[in-house]
From TrEMBL:
InterPro entries: Rho-like_N (IPR011112), Rho_N_sf (IPR036269)
Gene3D superfamilies: 1.10.720.10
Protein name: Rho termination factor N-terminal domain-containing protein
Species of origin: Pseudomonas triclosanedens
Pfam family, one: Rho_N
Residue ranges of the region described as Disordered: 1-125
The Rho termination factor-like N-terminal domain, residue ranges: 88-125
Basic and acidic residues bias (residue ranges): 1-25
Amino acid sequence: MPRGSKDKYTDKQKRKAEHIEESYESRGVSTDEAQARAWATVNKQSGGGEKKGGSGQKKSPQAKSASRKSSARRAVATKHGVPRPDQSLESMTKAELLNRARTRHIPGRSTMRKQELINALRHAA
């Protein structure tokens, strides 16, 4: 028999455990073992019973959505090499400099060295 009270579990979790337990019993597993496996499965899938209080973030669905959107925008900007406004040209990689030169349509950029790209970008500004 599994240890602990199941009062903190939702009705859906209890139904799921019961269904899993019946499935194990139909395959010949003992009742106690089937019950233990069922609750272990429910715990693994849903993280246990209802969580009330405790630590962690308490964000509204709107705040979570806004966080995801801004995070996605930052990730895309980073992925595509969009430089940060406060970043100096010297601290940028050659690939980032090439991307910036490409957006400014600097001719001959593909054959330039890093310092040449920096100089060309400064003159184009």
